[in-house]
Write a structure and sequence with these properties.
single chain, mainly alpha, Globin-like, two-stranded parallel sheet, 5% strand, elongated
């Protein structure tokens, strides 16, 4: 069963942005820098920018990761529920 439509879009987007931020911070700590194209030897990558500035194709990659993570959480028997005090 496909559960991807049951998650609030704002949750998916926030999680996707967090996924990107963690990836970016890891790369930066490893000495990677912004560059016009990915180059593993020079440690350059064009996506070392804030999530909001990414091309839509890159955002979609992070959204898929977010959705797969949320789906796994549900398959493991957990529920993702918004705290009513926060909403």
């Amino acid at each position: 069963m496909d559960n991807t439509n049951k998650f609030a879009p704002e949750l998916v987007e926030a999680l996707a942005a967090g996924v990107h931020e963690e990836w970016m911070q890891g790369r930066l700590q490893e000495g990677w820098v912004l560059g016009p194209q990915r180059d593993d030897r020079l440690k350059t990558h064009p996506c070392l920018i804030p999530y909001e500035e990414l091309p839509e194709s890159e955002k979609e990659y992070d959204r898929r990761t977010a959705l797969k993570t949320l789906a796994l959480i549900c398959r493991l028997g957990f529920r993702v529920v918004r705290d009513q005090k926060e909403g």
